[in-house]
Amino acid sequence: MGPDREKLAEHGAGSISLDSRLLEKVDAAFGCAAERAAEVFRATDAEADIGESFEAALRVVLDAAAADPDLTRLCLLEAPGLGATALQRKDAGLQRFVDLLDRELARRQGGQAPPLVSEMVVGGIYEVVQRAVRAGDTAALPELADQLRQLWLPALRSH
Predict the structure, then answer these.
(1) Exposure letters 76-105 (e unless 16+ CB within 10 A, then b)
(2) What does the alpha-carbon distance between residue 150 and residue 157 come to, in Å, rounded to a whole number?
(3) For each of the chain's 159 residues, which pLDDT tens digit applies?
(4) What is the distance between the alpha carbons of residues 13 and 1, in angstroms, rounded to a whole number?
(5) CA-CA distance, 100 to 155, in Å (whole number)?
(6) 20-157: CATH number
(7) In sequence order, what are the residues at sequence separation of 6 or more whose Cβ sits closer than 8 angstroms to the Cβ of residue 92?
(8) Which residues contact 89 (CB under 8 A, 6 or more apart)?
């Protein structure tokens, strides 16, 4: 989306543009998914195994993504192509998950989360999930939870 289209998307002639509406849906979807994951973490004891808690939170997000493939496709594939504003909002949505995981790691470790671990975990999961959605495998997203947990568990436990 070029600068003129971005300007129109933000300042339509007294109405909300289609792009703005789509981005509102993306924001709401990221917010809802992050809140679902946060609920899982809040429901688990700080002494519980990080792998089990992480997988449960991840499974909740992947189940929601699989249940609404059109919204998932919008969030992961289509919206980022709407320009710089859309990319910033996608990054902000992912940052919610980074912050959530940072808080959970800090809670379990009684202090501060290890630097970059959460960003690497969230970014890696985003890439894997985005590729699955691009390939049309949205319904199979929940099946990735165990594999992703096994992949990232050493990073989550190492600090």
Answers:
(1) beebbebbeebeebbeebbbbbbebbbebb
(2) 11
(3) 444 545 544 554 455 688 888 899 999 999 999 999 999 999 988 788 888 899 999 999 999 999 999 999 999 999 888 888 888 999 999 999 999 999 998 888 778 888 899 999 999 999 999 999 999 999 999 999 999 989 998 988 875
(4) 18
(5) 16
(6) 1.10.357
(7) 27, 30
(8) 23, 26, 27, 79
Cα separation values, 68 from 6, 19, 90, 91, 157, Å: 27, 20, 18, 21, 32
Distances (CA, A) of 79 to 36, 88, 128, 149: 22, 11, 17, 27
The CA-atom distances, in angstroms, between 129 and each of 7, 35, 65, 153 are 31, 19, 9, 17
Q: At 33, list the tokens.
A: 């998914």
Q: Where are the domains of the chain?
A: 20-157
